[in-house]
Amino acid sequence: MYAKVIKIFSYVLLLVGIVLSAIILFGNVKMGQNENLVDPVLYWAYILVGVGLVGAIVGSIVSIIDNPKGLKKSIFTLVGIVVVIGIAYLLAPGTPAIGLVGIEPTASTLKMTDTLLNLTYILLGGAILSIIVGVIVNAVRR
Fold this sequence. Notes:
By secondary structure, the chain is an all-alpha fold. It folds into 2 domains: 1-66; 70-142, no CATH class. It is 80% helix and 0% strand. It contains 4 helices and no strands. It has helices at residues 2-26, 35-66, 71-91, 107-141. The longest helix has 35 residues, at 107-141. The protein is extended, with a radius of gyration of 20 Å. The model has no long low-confidence stretch (mean pLDDT 84). The chain crosses the membrane at residues 12-29, 41-62, 74-92, 119-140.
């Protein structure tokens, strides 16, 4: 029953994402115009991030309850995540956007945006590196 609910929930999330993406891709959205078409996509992104965070937190709590010995591993993982986010924050310059017309973002907004960009780059690099290392390890083991 649980697996069926998760499967239906996943399909609903996918369907809403496809519909909103199609609206943006085929809705003739121009920069600086039609913000009312872009806003639902941004709200959907916030919802997906929230669902992901809630799922990760609930999954971690259930895992700790099922296996209390795994608490040490969970704490190390959490510390690692905080360290990576801290490095991304320290590397973020927070410089103003060049050529931006309109409302100038605050310094904290610029710093947060740069932090998220750095975090994306770090995680992308880690994902690519893990793929390469995985292929090499599998080749060596065979």
